[in-house]
Amino acid sequence: MDSMDNGIRLIVGLGNPGKEYEATRHNAGFWLVERLAADGHAVFRAEAKFHGLAAKTSLERQEVWLLKPQTYMNASGRSVAALAAFYKIAPSEILVVHDELDLPPGAAKLKKGGGHAGHNGLRDIAAALKTPDFWRLRLGIGHPGDRARVADFVLHPPRKEEAEAIGEALEQSLAVVGPLARGDFAGAMRWLHTK
Which residues are marked as active site? Predict the structure, then answer.
């Protein structure tokens, strides 16, 4: 990768708004950006024009926006596209953090582009940005083993041992956010994928 790549300027955590969803597997993306905000003493504020909660923080001396869309998962793109357009942030400068059924709890993987694998939040963001070429940080939540049970599965809290594994993956992921803001995508992937 070109060392002149722009770094990540917007980190979007995917989840559903509301107390009843806070601890559910589908909100793993929210958990990561909430940690980033807390670590950077940033405060999320309701931004009507972005249909979400936004905060500004600094990572490795780079200014980065944190966003929690408040549109519900299936309409996340409206929020992401609004903030990206307002601040002139390119899709390649966006990191979307989301729960991933195809990875076990405790796994975290970074990738750019690709399909949405049935994830409605990713599908909507790709449609709103008119490209799938944004970065994704995939936080493993495991799979219930039966497609018919997926909707119920993602809207329930992880079991205790799963929650601990997901917590470890969040810690590992927090360590690569700085390099991503700096534009060191290759280094971030290498570090995360060898954990």
Answer: 26
Residue 184 CB contacts under 8 Å (≥ 6 apart), including other chains: 3, 7
- For residue 84, the domain's CATH number is 3.40.50.1470
DSSP letters for 156-194: SPPPHHHHHHHHHHHHHHHHHHHHHHHT-HHHHHHHHHT
pLDDT at 2 (0 to 100)? 41
Q: How far apart are CA 51 and CA 53, in angstroms?
A: 7
Q: How far apart are CA 16 and CA 150, in angstroms?
A: 16
Domain tally, the chain = 1
pTM of this prediction exceeds 0.90: yes
Q: Identify the pLDDT of residue 195.
A: 67
Give pLDDT tens digits for 143-177.
Answer: 999 999 999 999 999 999 999 999 999 999 999 99
